[in-house]
Amino acid sequence: MKAAPMFTIRVPASTANLGPGFDSIGLAVSKYLTVDVFSHYKWECKAKTPLLQGVPEDENNLLIETARGIAARYNKELPYCSLYLDSDIPLARGLGSSASAIIAGIELADQLCELHLSRREKLLIATEIEGHIDNVGAALYGGLIVGTYDGKDISFVSQPIHDVELVAVIPSYELKTIHARDVLPSRLVYMDGIRGSGVANVLVAALCKEDWVLAGEMMKRDVFHEPHRKQLVPELQKLHELEHGNVYGVSLSGAGPTVLCYVKKGSADEVKIWLQSIFSHCVVETLQVVNEGVHIIHEQQKPIESI
Questions:
Q1: CA dihedral in degrees (156, 160, 164, 169; nearest 10)?
Q2: Looking at residue 1, what is its pLDDT?
Q3: Cα–Cα distances in Å, from 86 out to 50, 51, 82, 247?
Q4: For the domain bounded by 7-160+291-297, which CATH number is listed?
Q5: Is residue 99 a known part of a binding site?
Q6: Residue ranges per domain, the chain?
Q7: Which of the listed residues 54, 156, 243, 307 has the most CB atoms within 10 Å of its CB?
Q8: Where does the chain bind ATP (predicted)?
Q9: Is residue 280 marked as binding?
Q10: What is the pLDDT of residue 2?
Q11: Euclidean distance between CA atoms 78 and 305, whole angstroms
């Protein structure tokens, strides 16, 4: 038997962009990274799920790297830990797996070094590490986040979302963010930028009002990234061509290759069955928006068996 963890960190997955909200809109979704934290004599990470097989098991793990960097930033010594990692967030699929690890690392340092960081301070640090605010913001705050980062500071709005369900079409292949960014243009024609900005502005207004019909229309009109990335994700092109009365819109999740469908509440199971018949080569899952972000569990638990 193994003693109960000192505490547990639970971080939701996230989707980003939602079409034209490039690097600025994020939404927390119902997949999770869970980290049980045990006192230990060295750094150690143990994966409890096949999805995490192959991730570094020592201080080279992104979670530990992040925590150690935060501790050093505040001139603190981070004590050694053994981390038991459980996750149903697929890696390199556009569902914020790296963002969840970064948020977990910041929380690990905050807890162990008693930094007492505010949520805003955590978000700024996470954005500095990730380079953009969308995934880390959603993972930290939950719900919808709309924000921007100018290289020095962040500005953002966060709010809960209630009136939509999600169906994810998850291809079997990985798509690294760096490769998905390679296909983006280095510049846009000025008028295209204005048009894209207008579409993104209407998308944000529609999301804040939960007008999902309008939001879905705006998702179709992105000029910033989806037109360039659809060559890498044929499922995105196919989903744009399909129509279903309960599907408001679709968007590439982050850099892909996962594509999310935003559907009428109560219809996710029906839409999942329909999409699975079309995308038999993909995993098709129903997801929910989650309005709680990262969560720390301190209560004592019964001893668990060693893994």
A1: 60
A2: 42
A3: 9, 9, 13, 32
A4: 3.30.230.10
A5: yes
A6: 7-160+291-297, 165-287
A7: 156
A8: 90-100
A9: no
A10: 60
A11: 26
In degrees rounded to 5, what are phi and psi of residue 306? Answer: -65, 150
* Beta bridge mates, 167: 261, 286
Q: Measuring CA to CA, which residue among 12, 269, 14, 288 is closest to residue 165?
A: 288
197 labelled as ligand-binding? no
Average pLDDT per 10 consecutive residues for the chain, totaling 307 residues: 83 97 97 96 89 84 95 96 94 92 98 97 97 97 98 97 97 85 92 96 98 97 93 94 96 94 97 97 97 88 43
The residue to which tokens 């505040």 are assigned: 74
CA pair distance 265, 5, nearest whole angstrom:
37
Ligand-binding annotation for 96, yes or no, is yes
Is residue 93 marked as binding?
Answer: yes
Does 92 show up as a binding residue in the annotation?
A: yes
Question: 171-207: buried (b, 16+ CB within 10 Å) or exposed (e) per residue?
Answer: beeebeeeebeeeeeeeeeeeeeeebeebbebbbebb
> How many degrees, rounded to 5, is the angle at CA 133 between CA 156 and CA 46?
135
Return the number of other C-beta atoms located less than 10 Å from residue 298's C-beta. Answer: 10
The amino acid occupying position 228 is H
Q: DSSP states of 16-31 as a string?
A: E-TTT-TTTEEEEEEE
What is the third-level CATH fold of 165-287? Answer: Alpha-Beta Plaits (3.30.70)
Q: Compute CA distances 129 → 62, 70, 123, 135, 162, whole Å.
A: 11, 10, 10, 12, 30
The answer to the question of whether 98 is labelled as a binding residue is yes
For residue 171, say if its preceding peptide bond is cis, omega within 30 degrees of 0: no
Question: Which pair of tokens denotes residue 193?
Answer: 């930028």
Cα–Cα distance, 276 to 102 (Å, whole number): 32
SS3 category, 255? coil
Q: At 49, is the secondary structure helix, strand, or coil?
A: coil
